[in-house]
Sequence to fold (914 residues):
Amino acid sequence: MQPQFLKFCRLTPEIVKNAAEKFGTPFYLYDENTIVEKCRQVLAMPNAFGLTVHYAMKANPGKALLQLITAQGLNVDTSSLNEARRAFLAGIPYDRMILTTQEIPFGQDRTDLEKYIHAGLTYNVCSKRQLLLIADYAAAENVPLSMRIHPGVGSGESASRNTGDKYSSFGVHLTNIPEVLDTANARGIVINRVHVHIGSGGDPVTWRENIDRELMFLEKYFPDAETVNFGGGFKEARMPDEDAADIQALGEYATQRILEFYQRTGRKLHMEVEPGTFIVANAGFLVTRVLDKKRTGKDGFNFIILDAGMEANTRPLMYGSRHPFYVVSKDGQLLSHESEKRKNSDAFVLVGKCCESGDSQCLTKNGEIAPRLLTEPQLDDYVIIGGTGAYCSAMSPYNYNSHPQYTEVILRRNGDVQVIRKPQTMEQIVQNELPLEISQTNSTNKRQKINASYPIF
Amino acid sequence: MQPQFLKFCRLTPEIVKNAAEKFGTPFYLYDENTIVEKCRQVLAMPNAFGLTVHYAMKANPGKALLQLITAQGLNVDTSSLNEARRAFLAGIPYDRMILTTQEIPFGQDRTDLEKYIHAGLTYNVCSKRQLLLIADYAAAENVPLSMRIHPGVGSGESASRNTGDKYSSFGVHLTNIPEVLDTANARGIVINRVHVHIGSGGDPVTWRENIDRELMFLEKYFPDAETVNFGGGFKEARMPDEDAADIQALGEYATQRILEFYQRTGRKLHMEVEPGTFIVANAGFLVTRVLDKKRTGKDGFNFIILDAGMEANTRPLMYGSRHPFYVVSKDGQLLSHESEKRKNSDAFVLVGKCCESGDSQCLTKNGEIAPRLLTEPQLDDYVIIGGTGAYCSAMSPYNYNSHPQYTEVILRRNGDVQVIRKPQTMEQIVQNELPLEISQTNSTNKRQKINASYPIF
Fold:
């Protein structure tokens, strides 16, 4: 049975084969129809007094995807000034962006931030220092600000992805809200939006608790807030045994709470959410080819060496994330499907081509090897790694072992496959490097005395 | 007391401050004197019948460092065809390179590989398939090949960095040696070099066992081998409580075994080693600045937010690696030194500026937070992350959150600080991106019927 996360996918083995022959492996392939349908799902979330959806572009910041997603009606959640700049270069106006960052803008960054705010960017203040640095400008321009709250609790797929509890540093901690608000009030700054992001993969119970806590903060501390931003963290199912967040149920819950809030206070809150993974994760496929096969002795593993690995999808190494695998023969036949094991399935370990033991697509959170069942691919067959639309191209050490950033293509709804990122060249990899100045090199073989006054580190 | 790994370092707090004011943080700074002295140490390893040292450029492939290191007399260990190309662009001839890769060369790659071998590159065959693909060329040109053996045992700092045992796929597994050798013999190919790499961080006992095993393989299977390559994996101490490999003792042990081998067989073996981390790890410093400070409640942590993190040093997130921290005040005073705690030390968690909970420099191998003792830095002070010369700039997801690749500079032995990599610009980040073709976009809001003949994945 076709898993839910492939419900809208229009990718076929034949398209894989044709694209591989045309562009050469490895490459990322994004399915437009999946993205469009996921945007539609999120935009259809139930709400009480209006909904704005910001796409968390850190998940995948490519120009074409930004254009596609914003064309569906989503705005953009940016995590850095550079993301705002990048979105603008893709044609997205600043008034469709919210900026939530750990950065502190100095110099040109500060000038730019003020310019972006002037053009309509929503600045989501995350610390007292951020507030203080923008205070004069915001007060003078009479610009309201958003504030990110650290709610003291959190959820997440792993300890290192837990954004809400004491283990993370994001936002104004709940114990500091009064102090930071006093600072804002003293300068006449209005906080018209409250933001809490609890973390990726949160279960529905935690998400509902988050909604309750945030509305409590909002009622207690933020009399001017008109918008409640629930952040992102809609869990997506990448594997057949995983469950995606039920955003319909979450929307219904939020609607009910926002209506109750209205009945208590007379305030109509606009709702915002910031999905990233939920929009693009299952729209992305990393198409690789089998370079080699090895068995490490009788008690060893069956290794399948692919022509892409950690330099294109580091999530298994960083977080022990699992991705679905599909095997397509070199002549375009589907041999193995993640949720429907075919004949002759055996346990294999899929690894990349980097000179790094961690370059594996089959790791657990503890770094152990977890072989996976699939029909044995032959040399030169294609192995497609699914669920690679989010935090893969965006968060990989592209140039490790001096490999290039790979081609990215999109499968349009009409069946066309178009390039949206050309492969990086070797000249581009080294374009900012400067040689060692030779006049200095001559001295390196002579032993210099270390100046005794050097206060060595 | 100054730890051993800073013995040759000429970096001073004043140099940090001046460089930071000139180039802006964050940036990587490499200490030339440390690199030169580490090269000298490795080149001075005891040996019986000659030694060649290959620098494992995957650790740090920057042009200037390649030029500096090869100027000291080291050759280059390349892990991909692209690394060979990159080293050549840095001015290093192919006859000073050895190539050990998981790649299978097709098309242009194959043509190039033959060209490089013709120019003197040593090809270290790692699988039967690699041998078969190069066999005709090697036989016709009468070029001897090297062979990497998978010795069936290994060591490493973590499961995912264990390159020698059944958990890794590198090299011709010992159980396959006869079969692969038969293939070589049938084609008249001479294997004149045997290579085993056991893995990073191996303890001396494992390393010695490796030497014994490799010489046993060599004696049993490789009558034509003239060179024994022991790979890399010299453990380097990044922290004061860590011990570096005693390469003098390892060299003495290898010398003794190679002499015994000579007495038994009459064969004089040339020795090779391939250090990467050992040469550059402690020569590298990531200079960051304190952006913000936060405390997450009474039972929470003291967070120090730096202007660089996982996008510049991902090793703590990937492997739980520890790095030394130094705090330098914004006016250039050393406040805190890793191996000599100063007054008012407290436990802090150093994190970066990415919108990612895992963006921390204080993680254990299990992803837990491990706060570190240091004198409290103030806003805008410098925090220097040491031990970042290897696998940091080379293996980081530079562009996560759309941050640029950062400036790299080198502190010359004469005290000059020179730029060896200019910072990446936003235009460069997006230079290969193509926009969505607009003629297609118009259709995205119309619901298309899925063609029923689509064999959906």
User: Anything to note?
Assistant: The longest strand of chain A covers residues 284-295.
